[in-house]
Amino acid sequence: MIGATHVKAGPPGLASALVAGGALTAEWLPSFEAVPRELFVPDRIWPGVADGTRQNPVVDRSQDPGAWRRAVYSDIPLTMQWDDGDHQGDGLGTTPTSSNSMPSMVFSMLQDLDVRPGDRVLEIGTGTGWNAGLLAHRLGGSNVVTVEYDPEVARGARENLERAGLAPTVVEGDGRHGWPEGAPYDRIIATCSLLEIPPAWLAQTAPGGIIVAPFGTEYGGEQIVRLTVNADGTSASGRFTRGSAFMRLRQQRTDRPPSADHLHGQEWPADVVRTTTTLAPPDTGGWDGHGRPGPERFGLTVAADAHTVWLDSPENPLGR
What we know:
This protein has about 325 residues and is of the alpha/beta class. About 25% of the residues lie in helices and about 25% in strands. The chain has helices at about 10-20, 30-35, 65-70, 105-115, 130-140, 150-165, 200-205, 260-265, 270-275, 285-290; strands at about 45, 60, 80, 95-100, 120-125, 145-150, 170, 185-190, 205-215, 220-230, 235-245, 300-305, 305-310, 315-320.
């Protein structure tokens, strides 16, 4: 499927590390090798760190091709855009708004998605197009639709996919609405974090289909959730699988002052941080009262009028 511009997948260290860590499985290894990350990374990037907490100074391929390639083939996120494209120059902007996600997260989420031959997939948040390219290689471009809100980011993704010889459908639009023209989908995956799962996604998913998305509160504690949609498309339920740190869906951003403005130089207490990162809600006996459960014991049920977090099973709701 890859055209004349195909390049090798880069140093073997990244693939070996992803396989050893369990993120990259045999089902996805051919796509990893055939769809090189470097085809989806621009010449100027701000490499991040694995936990997503900060970005390093700009790396320019024309100035230091070795550093650029090392960053591309490291298990780190790479920021491509700051402040919705308003930021210019080499320095760090205020808020990163488009990136190429860290490979271990990309392939872990693709594992959660559990695609099968012939599945139709809708992706929300095209970014550089790498994730859509991996899906298109595995399933065929005609089975993959990806939606990107930012016109410039969408244009860049189309160019990257064309250079890689891949042709999923790239749609410019508001990802909250999905893309009804291509529905129903067997799988939906979001590469942006959410405060709410849009009802349109449920309606556009086939019965028994799966939605994989980063989900969290306004205060943090973001986790990847894997939801199975019910027979009539009105609700979905499933467990959280792992922590994450994605950029918020633009239409669900909230305007709140930085926490540092309230802490006056102090740090969050450790018990508050632990409780927040497990999404444990208040007034339910607390984190300690439930035996200090890890994120894997929590789940989410989504209906038209409510999002309900639960512990161990949907019959034990905790509220939001």
